[in-house]
């Protein structure tokens, strides 16, 4: 058995829970869970997982909600050294079926039976080179890409280690007294900010309605850029009581300088604008004191090459699970190719200037355009299909489809929406469709997506 100090993730998190003792760490409605109770729950579930034959290197899929048991199950699965696959809500049946086929030994939907086992001393069995978790970048294909993160990488991450916190995270941690969780704990952002909250001495609060900040006396929550725009507009029209709010964790897509500045003016100094990817974890974060329109300065242990951004972070993934071709394109000599464009200003602040990848980001979830085009092109009346990301007030971006008809008939928008929704999910369904005789062509001879994007507002 390895020495306690040498144990892998989640040893640091378990130590945080042990130190919390009788302090509330999770709140779900009227239920309050202390550090001691959470540690006991993790121990009993870990015993149950081992009793079901789960051990180091084995795959486990978690289909759970957002509650203390779901959080405890994630920690318990890592404690036994398993490869954890979280299945988030909103995936199609085919996508869920694919996830459950990824060499999965055990599927956990609830913890009733697991939690009936006796608590035993917690020994973290993760081996450094084993894959600790698979985090899926999107649900945009029938076979979503899974970022594979090793136990060594998760152990090296700074979330549960205050001595390694970058300055921006240290500032954020001081505001995480009551952090709202909602949606899915399989979300990398939601889960890791929860760990940061516990490490900072705060309480994780389950919210059915993440907008009920006053009801939950919340001090922090994650919010997408479209969600932030709605909140700002709502505060201008009819201000709600946000007196407890100290940190809005803006995630998913870049903020324009104008929206960033407006949000600070309306909401006060509460914006923390993070930049990162599933492959990398956090790359940088702007605090309320940083210039609007930037994503802050990367920490000293994060390396960034500007232009088309290549990065190295302590907790980065090692590749895409069972996908060597795409791994070779993105994971290059220890660096990760973000396919984002950016530059540093004279003061060292990072500015995001665009994307070098063909994607659409809907409600902060990234969806690759290629699979959407393939599905639309399968319609019997479509000869060719081209998709671009169009700005959308509700979702940040949405799918705009351009089609070259096979004959005189142009398929109706609703037909294409139904086709794409059935195959890839509603987020990938087009909100507009435009018929064209042929696509514009770039000097390279390839279809010119930039020219198509310019047609969106005139289509």
List the helices and strands and how they pair.
Elements: H1 11-20, E1 24-28, E2 31-34, H2 35-51, E3 59-62, H3 68-79, E4 83-86, H4 93-99, E5 104-108, E6 131-136, E7 146-150, H5 151-156, H6 167-173, E8 178-181, H7 188-199, E9 203-206, H8 213-216, E10 220-224, H9 225-237, E11 247-251, H10 257-267, E12 271-277, E13 281-286, E14 303-305, E15 307-312, E16 319-320, H11 324-330, E17 331-332, E18 335-344, E19 350-355, E20 359-362, E21 365-368, H12 369-377, E22 382-392, E23 396-405, H13 413-424, E24 430-435, H14 449-455
Parallel strand pairs: 1-9, 3-4, 3-5, 4-6, 8-9, 10-11, 11-12, 23-24
Antiparallel strand pairs: 1-2, 6-7, 7-16, 12-13, 14-15, 15-18, 17-18, 18-19, 20-21, 22-23
Helix pairs in contact: 1-2, 2-3, 9-10, 12-13
Domain AMP-binding enzyme C-terminal: 372-446
EC number: 6.2.1.3
Subcellular location: Membrane
Explain briefly what this protein structure is.
The protein is of the alpha/beta class and 459 residues long.
Mean pLDDT: 92
The number of distinct helices, counting runs of at least 4 residues, comes to: 14
Largest sheet: 6 strands, mixed
* CATH topology (level 3) name of the largest domain: Rossmann fold
Number of strands: 24
Helix content: 25-40%
Alpha-beta content class: alpha/beta
What is the CATH homology-level superfamily of the largest domain? ANL, N-terminal domain
Principal-axis shape equals globular
Q: Separation of termini?
A: 65 Å
- Main sheet strand line-up: 5-3-4-6-7-16
In terms of DSSP E residues, the strand content is: 25-35%
Radius of gyration: 23 Å
pLDDT < 50 runs, ≥5 residues:
none
Domain count = 3
